[in-house]
Amino acid sequence: MDFLPNMRLTTQRQIILEELGKVTSHPTANEVYDMVRKRLPRIGLGTVYRNLELLAENGIILKLEVGGTQKRFDATIESHYHIRCSVCGRVDDVDIEVQEEINETAAKSCDYKILGHHIEFSGICNECSAKETVLH
Asked: pTM (2 decimals)?
């Protein structure tokens, strides 16, 4: 992983990246903290949060702020779409090709210089659907 010249890969950052890279669940800062704390018991939540923000600001990880109430983090930085469960808030990747033509369409319909787009689908995950079926 290439880091910007002004960013050192500290042990804490390395472990945060390793733990984030092990999951596809797009964890919150608290969830990353719980994962990292197993390896670094004395690390503080504030330290994890600051490092996640710094890693996101430097483009090393993604910070997802679309929909939902909590920021979530993603080790996959390539353009891709997400889906959020409307019931439990779970976030997963949607495995479809990124639609670059949306940028061109948007550019033609406004006077902005389009830099990119983020799409988040909403739905109900399998676990919540199964619970709903049991309840009815």
From this structure: 0.77
